[in-house]
Design brief:
By secondary structure, the chain is mainly α. The chain folds into two domains: about 1-30, no CATH class; about 30-105. It has four helices and no strands. It has helices at about 1-5, 15-20, 35-65, 70-105. The chain is rod-shaped.
Length: about 110
């Protein structure tokens, strides 16, 4: 019975059992296993990208704390530009993964 419950829109066994006993229709949900795998991979990717972004931020802070030569200043400006691009992409990916995940779980 629990296996059948997991395939329905009902979250509680009591609701599912009541519908069965009263002969009411039970809404069955079909999941696309491919999309489930995609969502799981994207969640992992999002965490990894956030970690990379955090490490990069720490690196830039460290660069700020050391004695600055003209070359270090140039490298710092370059790294800050790249950091901004990285953070922007992480934000875009995070937003898209969140939207896909929310949409998928609302439909399940």
């Amino acid at each position: 019975m629990m296996q059948e419950l997991s395939k329905t829109a009902d979250k509680k066994l009591s609701s599912y059992a009541r519908k069965l006993l009263l002969g009411k229709p039970v809404k069955i949900i079909y999941k696309d296993a491919t999309l489930d795998a995609f969502v799981q991979e994207m969640v992992v990717l999002r965490k990894e990208l956030n970690g990379i972004g955090n490490n990069f931020s720490q690196l830039v802070k460290r660069i700020h704390s050391v004695w600055q030569t003209p070359e270090q200043i140039l490298l710092l400006k370059y790294s800050e530009k790249k950091q901004a691009q990285l953070v922007e992409k992480i934000s875009e990916i995070t937003l898209h993964v969140r939207k896909i995940t929310e949409q998928w779980y609302q439909n399940s």
